Amino acid sequence: MKRNYYIVALIMLTFFVISFLTNIIGPLSPEFIKDFKLSDLLAGVLPFAFFIAYGVMSIPSSMMVQRYNEKKIMVAAFVVAFFGALLLAVEPNYLTAVLSLFLIGCGMAMLQVVINPLLRTAGGEENYAFTSVLAQLIFGGASFLSPLVYSYMVLNKNSTGIFAILKTVVPANLPWVSLYWLFAVICLLMFIVLLASKFPKVELANDEKAGPWKTHVMLFKKPVVILYFIALFCYVGTEQGVSYWMSQFLYEYHKFDPQITGANAVAYFWGLMTAGGIVGLFLLKIMDSRKLLVIFTIPAIIGLTLGLFGSAQISLYAFPIVGFFMSVMYPIIFSLALSSVDEHHGSFAGILVTGIIGGAVVQVLIGGLGNLFGLRTGMFFLYITMGYILSIGFWAKPLVTNKTIFDTKE
Q1: Cβ(61)–Cβ(113) under 8 Å?
Q2: Which residues neighbour 36 within 8 Å (Cβ) at sequence distance 6 or greater?
Q3: Residue 402 placed within a domain
């Protein structure tokens, strides 16, 4: 089959946009708390609204793709995200923020379900390992850039050009709203690009297709499926728990400016996660993925501890370093999971993606505990999720292990 590199490039752009829109929530959390006068619990509802959308939309989206085509689902996803961004841009308040983040989350969940099998078809199965890693690097790069763009827009809000236009629609006391106007424009542009694009037909193997609800229910009766669902739940809860609360923690305990220093710390969290992913690629060629998971999780726990209890400067550097050591967790957990069952991989993947709701639930738990005992104590919950991730390296028994350069058997 002829490879469609235009579609590959379009998917890479989509990965960039998903990440750019998703991982700005953390740097904005201190602004949400200050401007909407929120408690930690109410602040935790905002990422809850975003990530619960993955729980709502992932499995239905995988079923819809088989009824409609990939192009229609992607176009619809950007329409939903556009209205979500526009809602918060036009009417910034707490209720519209919750609804806006839910709608953007629904759009991003729809996209995530479509673009991975589409990437395999457009780029070729033989290139899928390379293109999927490239997509993750682009995803990480966008997560690094979005907080820096936020800082740039806040610092230059009184400049001329496009900023002069934004001043007419952005409240002077809410400069972060300009980001949501930017998001709305990005979604509109992606909508136009997708409408003008011709998509290849994606042929899924029977094992890759999302089965009916009874298949999902049957899988959920298997202990190994539940264990890996919890694993993805814990991973995303940890990732977002660090990146979402980091800026607020640095402001609350060390008085760092959330618009500049806090946003930069979050940017470097994602930047170091990208760098760690590159290092992890090489390490996976020389050791068992379970060992690598243990070796990276222990320093991540140490980094979290230094972030929570270290001095201002140590805390400022420790939180982003956690991102470096978390970098291998998601791909290793996902690959171990799919390698631990011998059928219904498409349905199992949908269940695993639904585990992204961990990003929702854990934030509310941290916020609730933060209300009662303080944010530092609330973030102690991350020791539970990180401890579970560490345990995977000891109990995982995949049917197929990752191939290393030391393997002699074909």
Answers
A1: yes
A2: 42, 93, 94, 97
A3: no
Q: What CATH number is given to the structural domain containing 101?
A: 1.20.1250.20
Written as six digits, the tokens of 245 are 């609360």
Residue 409 pLDDT exceeds 90: no
Distance from C-alpha of 80 to C-alpha of 77, rounded to nearest angstrom: 5
How is residue 400 written in tokens? 């197929």
Token representation of residue 104 = 């953007």
Domain enclosing residue 331, as ranges:
5-395
- The answer to whether residue 305 sits within a structural domain is yes
Determine the residue type at 6: Y
H-only helix segments in 68-93: 70-90
Tokens of 184: 């709305």
pLDDT at 403 over 90: no
**Under 8 Å between Cβ of 373 and 235:** no
Are the beta carbons of 388 and 333 closer than 8 angstroms?
no
Count CB atoms within 10 A of the CB of residue 85. Answer: 26
Nearest-angstrom CA–CA distance, 362 and 233 = 9
pLDDT in tens, 311-334: 999 999 999 999 999 988 988 888
User: Per the domain annotation, does 164 fall within a domain?
Assistant: yes
Q: What confidence tens digit (pLDDT) does each residue in 165-193 have? A: 888 888 888 889 999 999 999 999 999 99
Surface-to-core class of residue 398, CB atoms within 10 Å of its CB (0-12 exposed, 13-18 middle, 19+ buried): middle
User: Band of the pLDDT at 410, cuts 50, 70, 90?
Assistant: very low
| d(C-alpha 320, C-alpha 279), whole Å | 16
Q: How many domains does the chain have?
A: 1
Q: Judge whether 406 lies within some domain.
A: no
Residue corresponding to tokens 């950007």: 78
Residue type, 354: T
Segments of 30-156 assigned E as strands: none
Q: For residues 120 and 109, give the distance between their C-alpha atoms in angstroms, rounded to a whole number.
A: 18
pLDDT tens readout for residues 370-391: 999 999 999 999 999 999 999 9
